Amino acid sequence: NADDFPSVSVGQREAYAPIKSLGCYFEYSVLDLRRSELAGTVLDAKLATAARQTIESKIDKLATNGDERVGIKGLCNQDIMSHNLGKWFDEKGKALKQPEQMLADISQLISIIAEDTNNVLLPDTLLLPVKHFAYLAQTPFSTTGQVTILNYLLSNNPYIKNVDSWVHLKDKCVIYPRTPQALEMYLPLEFEMLEPQAVGMNIRIHCHARFGGVQVYTPKACAYGVGL
Q1: Which of 37, 86, 140, 222 has an alpha carbon within 20 to 30 A of 215's alpha carbon?
Q2: In CATH, what number is assigned to the domain containing residue 164?
Q3: Distance CA 195, CA 67 (A)
């Protein structure tokens, strides 16, 4: 009976992405151009680099919490289940949990996702606040060895393959499978520099990119660990 066939949708949904245009510009004066031509040198690329960094910084912020005004969501404000894990550190930065307890928190999130997706989409990526990542990367798992908690996690957990820090995370972590079947960041137009335009005594170069936010297609495959 076809009605008895198992579903592979695991809670997938369609997503429609509003697009936000991002832009800035830089310019050189006519004197800059003449000076460069007479000296036989290229124009200073610092302005172009700064323009790229400006737009990439805007994208990074939008990828975090999106922009409600245009209906864009980021990675940190999705309709994803949040699970309270309890603080890892006190206000002075002292660890409140043993390494085994920290890893148990991560395993708890993995188990929840595995159960919710029927083991179809298992998380392989963990994003942590900078402080939490640094602690895992620098602290030995046991007092008798040199293997850090992070190395122990990557060596012994069969699911997690990527662990990184994200400056925009403060007291929560994000865990998800790194596959477009679960989620993706929509960037329909990457950074570009348009044709130079004469504006008075200057030559202006506009820079542009388009961003569509973070699209989560399978919310059950992702989870927030909060209260860290």
Answers
A1: 86
A2: 3.30.2320.10
A3: 29
pTM > 0.85: no
Query: Which residues have CB under 8 Å from 108's CB, separation 6+?
Result: 83, 85
How far is 224 from 173, CA to CA, in rounded Å?
A: 6
- DSSP bridge pairs for 162: 125
Q: At what angle do helices 149-156 and 99-116 cross, to 10 degrees?
A: 30
Within a domain: 5: no
CB 223 within 8 A of CB 127: no
Q: How does pLDDT run across 44-96, given as a tens digit for each residue?
A: 788 999 999 999 999 999 999 999 998 999 999 999 999 999 999 999 999 99
Q: How far apart are CA 115 and CA 107, in angstroms?
A: 12
Asked if 122 and 160 touch (Cβ cutoff 8 Å), the reply is: no
What residue has token string 């996702």?
113
